[in-house]
Write a structure and sequence with these properties.
two-stranded antiparallel sheet; two-stranded antiparallel ribbon; ATP binding; microfilament motor activity; Unconventional myosin-Vb
Length: about 150
């Protein structure tokens, strides 16, 4: 499959704004620079064309920007699917398990608030390819590193 290597710039950059989403929408993979929006567009196009589920795997070390990349992909789907103005889907999905995250987050040498959870986010689309809902499942990783409560 397609592999995109990205880094977490630790600050907002203009390469993730609305006009960039529209620039990547409808483009073929490889026509533009590598970007999370290019990966999202390819998955979106294949879902619509083949009418089959698609997956985007976001992987990396602690602090690499996995959650941020997932947010950008969801923002892309919400925008191109006509859902961005109706609802802030990425905020709703990612805010759905704050208690679980609070239990599983821990300080590491690379990140002050590193999650011990893997996340599986399933986004539902209707026949017109608009987002109609989402479901997030969390899986506890590295439970041996969650050893005590901070006082």
């Amino acid at each position: 499959g397609i592999v995109l290597v990205a880094i977490n710039p630790y600050e907002q950059l203009p390469i993730y704004e609305q006009d960039v989403i529209y620039a990547y929408s409808g483009q073929n993979m490889g026509d533009m620079d590598p970007h999370i929006f290019a990966v999202a567009e390819e998955a979106y196009k294949q879902m619509a064309r083949d009418e089959k589920n698609q997956s985007i795997i976001v992987s990396g070390e602690s602090g690499a920007g996995k959650t941020v990349s997932a947010k950008y992909a969801m923002r892309f789907f919400a925008t191109v699917g006509g859902s961005a103005s109706e609802t802030n889907i990425e905020a709703k999905v990612l805010a759905s398990s704050p208690i679980m995250e609070a239990i599983g987050n821990a300080k590491t040498t690379r990140n002050d608030n590193s999650s011990r959870f893997g996340k599986y986010i399933q986004i539902g689309f209707d026949k017109r390819y608009h987002i109609i809902g989402a479901n997030m499942r969390t899986y506890l990783l590295e439970k041996s590193r969650v050893v005590s409560q901070v006082r």
